[in-house]
Amino acid sequence: MCGITGAVWQSESLRVDRSLLKQMTDAIAHRGPDDDRVWIDNDQRDGQGRRYGVALGFRRLSIIDVEGAPQPMSNEDGGVRMVFNGEIYNFKDLRHRLEGSGHQFATHGDGESVLHLYEDIGTDCFAELNGMFAIAIWDTRRSRLVLARDRIGQKPLYYALVGDRLVFGSELKSLAAVPGVCNEIDPAAIDEFLTYQYIPHPGTIWKGVRKLPPGHVAIFEKGKLVVQPYWDFDPTVEVPRSKGEAVERLRELLSDSVRLRLQSDVPLGSFLSGGIDSSLITAIAQRQEGDTPIRTFSIGFPIADFDETGYAAQVAEHLGTNHQRFEVQPNGVDIIDKLVWHYDEPFGDSSAVPTWYLSELTRREVTVALSGDGGDELFAGYDRYRALWLSVRLRRMFPIHKLPGIGLIQRLPDNNKQYSITRRAKRFLEAIDQPEARRYLNWLQIFPERMRAELYTDEFVQRLPGEDPFEFLGAIWDRSEGRDVVTRASITDMLSYLPCDLCTKVDIASMAHSLEVRQPMLDHRVVEFAASLPVHLKFRGRRGKLLLQDAFGSMIPKSIFTRKKMGFGIPIGAWFRKELKPMVHDTLLADDARIAPYFRREVVERLVGQHERMENNHGYRLWNLLILEKWLRQWAG
After folding, report:
1. Per-residue pLDDT reduced to its tens digit, 466-486
2. Spatial separation of the C-alpha atoms in residues 129 and 41, rounded to whole Å
3. Residue whose C-alpha is closest to residue 323's, from 279, 356, 290
4. Which letter, b or e, does each residue of 200-239 get, where b requires 16 or more Cβ atoms within 10 Å of its Cβ?
5. Does 2 participate in catalysis according to the annotation?
6. I need a labelling partner for 99 at 20 to 30 A (CA). Which of 134, 191, 327, 353 fits?
7. Which of residues 327 and 433 earns the better pLDDT score?
8. Per residue in 411-427, is it b (16+ CB within 10 Å) or e — as a string?
9. What CA–CA distances, in Å, run from 97 to 64, 73, 435, 586?
10. Which part of the chain is the Glutamine amidotransferase type-2 domain (predicted)?
11. Which of 2, 182, 500, 503 is catalytic?
């Protein structure tokens, strides 16, 4: 696990010299504390004799072949050079095949297999990889730079084409080090952020700076940039299977995925929250490790509504793992500036806070950790899938506006509990009469469209483009046309929420502490299999994750499947009435508030006041506004 950065340019005035490249590389030193190297060639030439300059920078976290495999690496004749962030889990099979075709390997690492595979089949090589990765390849023979990102978006990759210079990096910090790149905030990104709590790919907070979408390759050649998919996943395809066939295939795929992700030359453990997904991944890993207890880690909080460590301890005892429980007193005042710096652009998922603490403490013990991310999206585990299913049934039965008590519920005050019944009922009823995709977005979004309309200043509205933030989710929803509503929602999450929110959250929080997190559920074979399943194998009525229980239920206590879902949260509502209250008044409501050009002060004051007086729970909305304010102060001058 590492950090990569670099550039390609034609004009000498846009040259990236060693000093600038070092700044770009040092900006992501936390991603790779074990080694840093750079390579620059200012005298590359294409077939017409035009001169190119190329710079590649690398920070290394040593996981496989700890002493060897330095980067940037090259092939035998130096015609192809590469920097690579991530892990290729099937590298041993690829290496055996490549050695058979005559390639000579100089290292025992996983990255060199990518380099030689590219020599043989060009950009088709990425479809052969099983792993999480962000890759940059300079091909001297073709005078082209190739960028690629893994199918699920586990590893980030940003780029910007300014004039005839392309710059790229694992984090926006690297690009921000280059003059003239991160200059102007994109108003549409702020609108998207308040909708989703993240900024969807391919956009970023900065105009002209892009995220390479998951499963895509970008080719910069002859001054032109072409971005295209290499993953041919078709979400409209449903494969009929019997329950027995599906169980057997899932056991085979997920067990092999865990096996591949146990490869490591450094200490490895597993996150164990006590939920279904992390428990199953840990159970499979422990079975494969045999008599050697795997190390497991959980994080506890002093507030019972947010503490799952009792369940984690139950699973650890059942499996016989070497378990360690960390307890922390999360503090929004202490952590928010760290989050804002590391996440680079506004990122409002408050579960980044516990993820940050868990990564920080786990890294003191191991360098690699397994995680159960993806189980809810792949196997229909979220409550919102049940809500969507129920809304479809209700709409078929009778007109929704005639539901008894609907007006009363909408007028009830909210409360501070994480899973407030009142809040969930109000959100459910507010969206139930909308088309399915819009209904689903309404349950996902932080600020509904009507609230954003009230919040935005007239000047900011004038700066917004004509695009609706819904178009991002709507386009993905349309890709699964013909499938049932629960499957469409889960596939939409798999292609949007999973890469843009969950993978971003885990990557940044873990790499801030030089911890590699591996997610076996996100093996593309498991993802494609889960998406192809008929819904009845995963979800029936009020229950999801049925196939996971059918396949692996005997490995963990039965109570883990029937316990109430808690999520990975913090007391965000209470924070804004206590420890974060002074910060809110000193920033969001200050005379020099950076959000002032975008948002009406009286609306922000109303949200703050309603929350502090406990008239409504705006905790998550205030968190997103505070994150944006803090980001503007730290990154926008």
Report:
1. 889 999 999 999 999 999 999
2. 29
3. 279
4. bbbbbbbeebbbbbbbbbbbbeeeeeeeeebbebebeebe
5. yes
6. 134
7. 327
8. eeebebebeeeebeebb
9. 19, 20, 50, 61
10. 2-223
11. 2
